[in-house]
Amino acid sequence: MGIGKRIGIMGGTFDPIHFGHLVTAEEARINFELDKVIFVPTGKPPHKKDYEVTDSEHRYLMTALATNNNPFFEVSRIEIDRKGYSYTVDTLNQMVQIYGKDTSLFFISGADAVLDILTWKNIKEVLDICTFIAATRPGYPINKLKDKLEEIKRLYGKDVYLLEVTAIAISSTDIRRKVKEGRSIKYLVPEGVEKYILKNGLYR
Ligand code: ATP
Ligand code: MG
């Protein structure tokens, strides 16, 4: 099962998922020759206590709608179905159980997320299980990121790959704000996601 496979994991709140996430996952898939990318919407994110995160079923369904037309993309419920806060280390251990030790796991994240991975639960174990791909995102200072990568290397002896993603300055925060203000989110999210948001009255 899964001999020598290369799997990308794209974790996120996806509140909502947008083209920034999708482009990043697709470019990581191609550049790192991944067999597939699994999107893992967080259940209860320990990092986002500053605003009320949308119900996980809505976020899961939007992620499924957005990834449906890419045969190399999948969505996992493992964090949503797990109790308590979502920690990446638990997710990765579950992935190892599912795909076996011969599979290489790549965790795809934005540069902003990489800046605080040293605060993540059991980060040493996380870095032992997977390889990080840090996507550079407009507005994030590359120097700060490079310092952080050196620190990770010094502390844990691990390299983090950098991936320059086609510049898209889209964020979920901005999309939520736009919806709230009654502005258009066309061309920022897939059409199905836009319709889902309107139909369910999210972010009002
Ligand atoms: P929020 O504004 O609520 O923080 P977000 O747009 O950052 O939302 P998340 O769900 O927090 O989306 O992000 C999931 C992952 O995708 C993180 O690793 C984040 O860094 C990355 N990411 C988010 N937006 C982009 C983008 N436009 N380009 C590249 N990576 C992104
Ligand atoms: Mg974010």
UniProtKB/TrEMBL annotation:
Q: Does the keyword Nucleotidyltransferase apply?
A: yes
UniProt pathway: Cofactor biosynthesis; NAD(+) biosynthesis; deamido-NAD(+) from nicotinate D-ribonucleotide: step 1/1
Catalysed reaction equations from the record: nicotinate beta-D-ribonucleotide + ATP + H(+) = deamido-NAD(+) + diphosphate
**Nucleotide-binding among the record's keywords?**
yes
* Annotated ranges, domain Cytidyltransferase-like: 9-178
Tell me the enzyme class: transferase
Q: What biological process terms from GO does the record include?
A: NAD+ biosynthetic process
Query: Which keywords appear in this protein's UniProt record, sorted alphabetically?
Result: ATP-binding, NAD, Nucleotide-binding, Nucleotidyltransferase, Pyridine nucleotide biosynthesis, Transferase
Which superkingdom is the protein from?
Answer: Bacteria
List the CDD domains.
NMNAT
Give one Pfam family.
CTP_transf_like
Record SUPFAM superfamilies: Nucleotidylyl transferase (SSF52374)
Matches recorded under InterPro entries: Cyt_trans-like, NadD/NMNAT, Rossmann-like_a/b/a_fold
GO terms for molecular function, please? ATP binding; nicotinate-nucleotide adenylyltransferase activity
EC id: 2.7.7.18
Q: What does this protein do?
A: Catalyzes the reversible adenylation of nicotinate mononucleotide (NaMN) to nicotinic acid adenine dinucleotide (NaAD).
HAMAP family associated with the record:
NaMN_adenylyltr (MF_00244)
Give the family this protein belongs to, as stated in its UniProt record: Belongs to the NadD family.
The protein depicted here goes by the name Probable nicotinate-nucleotide adenylyltransferase
Species in which this protein is naturally found: Caldanaerovirga acetigignens
